[in-house]
Amino acid sequence: MSIVYGPVPSWRLGRSLGVDPVSTQEKTCSFNCIYCQLGPTRHPLTERQEFVQPSALRRELMQVGDVPVDYVTFSGVAEPTLAANLAELVAVVREQFAQPVAILTNSSLMKRGDVRRDLALFDVVVAKVDAPDETLYQQINRPFVDYTLAEVLWGIHRFREEFQGKLALQMMFVEANRDCAREMAEIARDLSPDEVQLNTPLRPSPVPPLSPAEMDEIEAAFVDLLALSKARVLNVYKATRPEVVSLDEGETRRRRPQYSRQEGGDKR
Ligand code: SF4
User: Fold this and answer.
1) I need a surface site. Which of 14, 59, 72, 228 has the fewest CB within 10 A?
2) In CATH, what number is assigned to the domain containing residue 191?
3) Cα–Cα distance between 189 and 23 in angstroms, integer?
4) Is the distance from the beta carbon of residue 268 to the nearest atom of ligand 1 less than 6 Å?
């Protein structure tokens, strides 16, 4: 298999069967995040293209068989919204799986109406926001796209107004944005997500993780500011992961270099 991988034990999505709608050999992304566990982005891309044929995805899904999964999740070695035929690929998954379908996006293209229309086809959208201002956005995410952080946030805001499913924000905390919890929590409050996932790079990464105590402080700021909202706040240090057995450990490790049966997790 080269499009479907896992299931991986995700701290946010339980037993998660992965679908990589881009499936390039190396990472293809519109960002070059300083903490990316897949290394530097050698194939930057900002325009959508078709990579994976629906028939090829259908063939691979038919081989999966009766594997227990909680979610089918679009992610992989690329930013999944770069796939121009995302809508067709989601439809193929729904032909064969009754489980909810999720996507992990870096949010970089959410200003685009076509991308928001495709994202609205998912049950769960996990959207990345790592920076409270343009300077830190450039420093942490090192985007190739021309959109400013304000435009990215506008896109998420617009999507929230249109989307009836579950919207989660994934926020990665590292040294560079460690002292920005309050500003980040204000952004989260303004975007009205259903969930905020507070992360720090616990897997091998070019930058070290924050400590449990630092993440506790960040969590406290979010809980305080989001007290009146419906959003649930998750802290990666307090998360549990299910045990899973991967269908093909080689393909899973290619997308999750640190993956093991006990200790997997999503790349972002
Ligand atoms: S962390 Fe995600 S968004 Fe950032 S460079 Fe890596 S794959 Fe792209």
Assistant:
1) 228
2) 3.20.20.70
3) 34
4) yes
Listed in order, strand segments (DSSP E) in 136-231 are 166-172, 195-199
Q: Beta strand 14-19 with 4-10: parallel, antiparallel or unpaired?
A: antiparallel
Whether residue 257 has a cis bond before it, omega within 30° of 0: no
Atom of ligand 1 nearest to the CA of 104: 2
Categorise residue 65: left if φ over 0, alpha if ψ from -120 to 50, beta otherwise.
left
With respect to residue 264, please indicate whether it lies within any of the assigned structural domains: no
Whose alpha carbon is nearest atom 1 of ligand 1? 36
- Whose CA is closest to 74, among 98, 54, 49, 93? 93
CA-CA distances (angstroms) from residue 102 to 6, 114, 187, 225, 242? 14, 18, 22, 27, 17
261 vs 226, more confident: 226
pLDDT, tens only, 19-69:
999 999 889 999 999 999 999 999 999 999 999 999 999 999 999 988 899
Is 243 a member of any domain? no
Query: Beta strands of the chain (E only): which ranges?
Result: 4-10, 14-19, 28-29, 43-44, 71-74, 101-105, 124-128, 166-172, 195-199, 232-235
Instruction: Tell me, yes or no, whether 202 lies in a domain.
Output: yes
Tell me which residue range forms the domain holding 80: 4-238+249-255
- Residue in the block written with tokens 């972002």: 268
Kindly state whether residue 261 falls inside one of the protein's structural domains: no
